[in-house]
Amino acid sequence: MEVHKRCHRKPDGRELILYGLKPLEGPPLAEPQEALAPAPHLRYHPLRREWVVYAAHRQERTFLPPKEHCPLCPSREGGFPTEIPFPTFQVAVFENRFPSFVPSPPPPPEGLPVPAERALGRCEVVVYTPSHTGSLATLTEEERLLLAWVWRERYQALYALEGVRFVMPFENRGEAVGVTLHHPHGQVYAYPFVPPLLEREAQAFRERPVLQELFPHLEPYRVDGEGGFLAFVPPFARYPFEVWVAPLERHPGLWTFSEEEMAAFARLLGRVVARYDALFGEPFPYVMVFHAAPLGEERTFHFHVEFYPPKRAKDKLKFLAGTELGASTFVVDALPEDTARRLREVL
Amino acid sequence: MEVHKRCHRKPDGRELILYGLKPLEGPPLAEPQEALAPAPHLRYHPLRREWVVYAAHRQERTFLPPKEHCPLCPSREGGFPTEIPFPTFQVAVFENRFPSFVPSPPPPPEGLPVPAERALGRCEVVVYTPSHTGSLATLTEEERLLLAWVWRERYQALYALEGVRFVMPFENRGEAVGVTLHHPHGQVYAYPFVPPLLEREAQAFRERPVLQELFPHLEPYRVDGEGGFLAFVPPFARYPFEVWVAPLERHPGLWTFSEEEMAAFARLLGRVVARYDALFGEPFPYVMVFHAAPLGEERTFHFHVEFYPPKRAKDKLKFLAGTELGASTFVVDALPEDTARRLREVL
């Protein structure tokens, strides 16, 4: 697939990259001048042994603006200046206005009683489509494939940055998971460390090909499949409607997929979301995360996507409370084999 | 403190224990006959390397009943039969009707593609007071002290059970954390394993006295204190209004507190909740968990209480989404030193 890419520097210094199947012509519209100086920093949690990010500037972030002030829509001449100063685009990626990690972070505050570090990295917003409504399920096949190529390109670009050790595209969808903008979009975080959870997964994959050992036994857990990819409810799901999407052959990330694999992956991802939306006849909230190999784990890590939906029924949420937050032990009231059947039969 | 204890076996086989400063006299009221057969089981998550509990019977659990059908109130002769078939009590503890762990679990399903185990253990509900309203902050000093002795006694009773390796009292408060019953109460889970998070904390304490090294530097993070106990916002807080309560001297759990320490601990816990409630002038939701030494860690673990509040402002929730759930990395938009000052100055 030939993807055209156009880079633009916003007046506040942030990068905006437009991706399309055709080159994007024409000059940008006028953009407001504004100084941004995000200053996140990291502090070490000595009992959980993980980094916590402090990003105080995020308190001001845009919260469910009216449709006509959506910052992720294309701009119109003389209209509300959005994040994308062009009258049209296909997929847009820009540096988050309220980042948790930045390429040139200031030093952390001095004199803290725990280790502190600069929040080096990068946080990006990925706008899936110029259309204000829709989802991974309603994109055209071509749009979804372009998006998959954008994820791939962002992996390559962000892992190439000095100091980045883990890159994670993700999507928060629905107000139930705290989404503040409804325009179809996701994000990519480039972390300066390997988060403990990923370190744990990487260690498991170093010891055994966990997913490949599991695949032959997943028939009762199968939700959908397509050209070498499987969508399934893990037999050890922590959320009632948790779904994973993975290639049957091990890949460290989608940067090693063939053209055919890219297309199959994009189609299957779209169908999983279509199944979710069919389940209760309404947009289904979820957190979707991509787990690709952290830096140095390319030889054993098995790329997969995890969907965490907060719903346990149409009108009931699965809350994380005492045992989940305080003991990292999830209690689930639906069996994976049952939710897999529901998701399999819904389409 | 002399605590009177009366054990009662419910017709469905569950144990109910009443605690009081005076003995509770009089026969129980009539109780409905009902067969319960909770059959939770454990499955192993091979990538996160933790146990997940499946408790399918929990789907039916009581959800925000009207006040007159509160199952945690005392029963009245001829009235709605609550969980406590007595017209009065001080503190009541009973086995959860919808348990995640049970003392005699059935074997797990056969033929699962991941390791499975019996969900051995015990889950209890701790009813703080016969009054339907109130909180840790509004209990009388005597009631709160009795409650602290009950926690202590439950620790001792549950750690004595065969196969139990970690015991955790906790409280989920407020609909924002999914509470289904408003009557002031908490829970205790007795786990048949050491959850990975606690294993991580225990490892940290085996290496260094993390909290005792921190205490001399906590002045900017101090919220309150009382007789050898400190309430503080950890300098590495993961929630904007996170507060920890800990004894300055190391104790593995509250079972080693002196009489004076029990009293100071109970008072301070009540004052932390009073500060929370004063913050926005309304009941403040939180998850509160007790971290005491898992089995075998008594020599180095430092008991402490962690409060995780889901609010970042009066009308704004802190949602856990992509980076928190998918990478175990928390992003916080308030600095601990600022929230500590707010909580310090609010009373």
TrEMBL record, chains A, B:
It is an enzyme of class 2 (transferase). Gene3D superfamilies: HIT-like. One of its GO terms (molecular function) is nucleotidyltransferase activity. Residues 228-346 form the Galactose-1-phosphate uridyl transferase C-terminal domain. Pathway: Carbohydrate metabolism; galactose metabolism. Its cofactor is Zn(2+). The keyword rRNA-binding does not apply. The gene is galT. Residues 39-195 form the Galactose-1-phosphate uridyl transferase N-terminal domain. It catalyses: alpha-D-galactose 1-phosphate + UDP-alpha-D-glucose = alpha-D-glucose 1-phosphate + UDP-alpha-D-galactose. Keywords: Carbohydrate metabolism, Galactose metabolism, Metal-binding, Nucleotidyltransferase, Transferase, Zinc. Belongs to the galactose-1-phosphate uridylyltransferase type 1 family. Its EC number is 2.7.7.12. It comes from the Bacteria. This is Galactose-1-phosphate uridylyltransferase. PROSITE patterns: GAL_P_UDP_TRANSF_I.
